[in-house]
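Lecture 7 notes: from sequence to structure.
We start with the chain below.
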Amino acid sequence: MSQAVVKVSTLVSYLKSKIDQDNYLQRILVCGEISNFVHHRSGHWYFTIKDEASRLSCVMFASSASRSKYLPKDGDQVIVQANTSVFESSGQLQLYVTGIKLDGIGDLHIQFELLKKKLFEEGYFDENHKVSIPKYPMRIGLITGKNTAAREDVVSTLNRRWPIAKLIEINTLVQGEAASQQIIEALRQMESKDVDVVLLVRGGGSIEDLWAFNDENLAKCIYNYSIPIITGVGHEVDTTIVDYVSDCRAPTPTGACELATPDKDEVIQTLALIKQTLIKQSRSDVEFERARLDRFKNMPWYQIPKSLVDQRQMKLDYASNRLQVSTFISQKKRIELDQISQAFKTLVSKRLHQVEIDLGHYTQQMNQNVIERIQREKKNMASMIHLLDAYSPLNVLKRGYAIASTTSGIITSVSQVKMDDEVKIRLTDGEIITRVNRKETNNGN
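Predicted structure tokens for the same chain:
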């Protein structure tokens, strides 16, 4: 085996980390039948959820089980909200349940979580998209129910904290099927009211009472809203979809108004401190400038202004004289530069003329040397041609000599041929082909 060997605990830990990091396996909704339900004395619930093909072990810790209004029993068809993980001690895949409801009852909590997860994944809760609330709003928009406690809370808080602001109200339904659409229309109307911030508030209630604030279209309207918006829906424990989308969420209507406005008493104190600081700084500036003025008053030119003019006139005359001298020197240098330039041009012209004369002499001499060299080379070439011609094999043939050869090459010895061999004899004007019928050597054999 060439593969690395790992411990069981290492493999289980690796599988657990992979499952825990998979967003598709977290906060999921699973439906099935309850079996083997155990309500442990610790408050934890242990059970199995199954269908006709598979089953999964589940645990619901006491912190989540204590909030459930429903106590499961074996055989119940349920929908659970859970995170998937691995129990490392046994290596068993199981669901860690955070919520449980009977299947088929139209659970609003499950709908809420599904919409919340969807909008989160689509980026509607992105903190970078939220805008800051203006620090000193002078026109505040309020969208809430007519003659409601939430409205009274906002009005009283505004009168207490920031009464100089103008409140622009649009009353809508804040409960029921038509409420969310009315709120959307109110938000669109408010955009034309030139307000600095908008408060969307409602008092507390059950999830059914607050369901209008869990509308997807309303959430998208708030996300794309052009004015900073603060939501204060329900009490501190209530959270709706609009709270996740708005620029700022307050736990109550009163809290929404407090987030939107500064406290007038704190502003007055701040202004008082600023006033004191400005007065102190102004006094310091006045004292500083008075001291400067006193110093100026003691200066001679202040007491006798003409002395300052005379000093400036002297400096001006001095500068004027220096300018005249500099102008004269500049003109003199220009004349000298012109003379040097003319002399340089004359010198360069003479030098170029002499170079042209020398170049003519050099060219003439070079041409003469080339002609003489060519004549010598021609004589040498003629001599070599004559010598080459004298040693040419053709001239040798003209003197009566011949070249004998066979298919093996030129014959230089009698021993190279045999009787009846075909011999080719080359003469100066052609070839003779013959056969050997007798051989004689120089010793007569």
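Points to note: The two ends are 93 Å apart (CA to CA). The chain is about 45% helix and 20% strand.
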